[in-house]
Here is the input.
Amino acid sequence: MGTVPPRTDSTGRERWKVIISSSLGTAFEWYDFLLYGALAPVIAKQFFSGVNETAAFIFALLTFSAGFVARPFGSLVFGMIGDLVGRKRTFVATIMLMALPTFLVGLLPGYATWGIYAPATLIVLRVLQGLAVGGEYGGALVYVAEHSEPGKRGKDTSWLSAMTPAGIILALSATLVTRTISGESALAEWAWRIPFLASIVLFGISMWLRLKLKESPVFEEMKAAARDKRRPVREAFGEWRYLRTAILLTFGVNTAIGVIAYTSEFYSQFFMARTLGIDPVTINWVMLPSLLLSVPMYIVCGWLTDKLGRKPVFLIGTLLAALTLQPAFRLMTHYGNAALEAAQRAAPVVVFADPANCSVQFNPVSAAALTSSCDIAKGYLASRMVSYQNQALPPGSIASLKIGNTMLQAFDGTGMPKAAFAAREKQFQADVQKALTGNGYPALADPAHVHRGVLICIMTYLLSLLAMIYTPAGAWMTELFPTRIRYTAISLPYNIGAGWFGGFMPSVAFAMVAGNGGVYFGLWYPVGLLALAVLIAGFGLPDMRNRQLNAPLGDGESGGAGRGVEQVVEQRVVCEAVQGGARS
Here is the structure.
């Protein structure tokens, strides 16, 4: 059965203007988030120097995630404005609010100058940016989709997804150029600010293009018809047929997007740097070609969704990711730091301790020192990201470490004077490092034995999985909701699923590794959520490929709420076309 063309006044030139201007906003979003993630160790020292190294790094990751906390609230505000006032005006507002905090981070004094006000202001800026980002992707997606023909919607919206690696390429390039020109010491002191300040150029281009755009033709048609009183938030989340779809999208689609995005693009870099000890420049030269090679995959996947459907492409990518994330990271260890892999096999590290004396290796609400013998034993291993096993001892026992055949006893620092504790801890850490070195644990990866080509292949594979999961979701979400609530109904599930469950992935995974001891243990977080997404999306959501976006959805036709949704919608669209022809 044929598909009726959309009622739109978009010319080919106008359509490409829409795609380019919308995509630049997505590139800007990912430029900033990758920039912050890539410079997290430097930012940790600049803004969280008042706590120990492990806690500072996790605080930096949590600040990275702070913007994600605000994203759902931004999606409600900007989504409602976009559905009531218009796509274009909201579109301009979000890019302004997203860009200014990025620029201001480059001007922000550090902890040494401002004390506690420095990290507090940094968090405020991240939250403001999160509010804007909450409305950015949903707006871009709706705007592009409503300018597209049904048979090209998957490919058109795929350009938004493709801007994810493009934005990251820009961020990595800016970081690499700055690091190369300034050197590591200058980067750590002041040069890290340059990429943040340079973001104003990208903002200027995006703003100029967006001001030239016209309103979405689908929105204008709905506004002119004035068929009903629009209450987007109440209707999208107060009526079960739409709320049900929103819940299924959150956990069946958007959570999968979030965890695979932040695993492949961010956590992989943390893993190579902190666990494998690969130098930052090498990591950049692994990531850049991998990202470039992955860009065409987004367009290919968009084309496939127009031909095969959104759901099949999404499910294949999600299932592959769930099954292969763990093996991929183990291969990364083998080809990134084979000496570490050999040491882990030949001289495993075991922590013997009373479980009651062991704390989580960071406390987000306190900078207090961890002074029990178990915490002291695990603390240094966690800071070095050394994999270890746990062995329980009777209550009250003093913790000890076994590294290969070397035994080291920790000490209980509870109640010790601060200076005495610091000296004792320093000596213990030196003894642990000596034992690790003696048993073959390398402090850093040997550059001569880092197989860049294989690492590029592994990273290209992981980033291609992201393309298979991320690309179908865009067109799929726009086809599940009517025009009057589309912006709101898409934005909130996306920002809860991708923003909360995905954005917290690096910090949650790092904390899981620090608490459990296994360097691959944190990967069970994304693997579990990906497996859940396969079940929810596979059984709960219909594929509504090529639905005309200005065709009305009747009762029971939202999300997975009824049987034969695609056929019902298609029949309705065709009937409307026949009736229109008869009237003419």
About this structure: The beta strands are 349-353, 388-392, 400-403, 406-409.
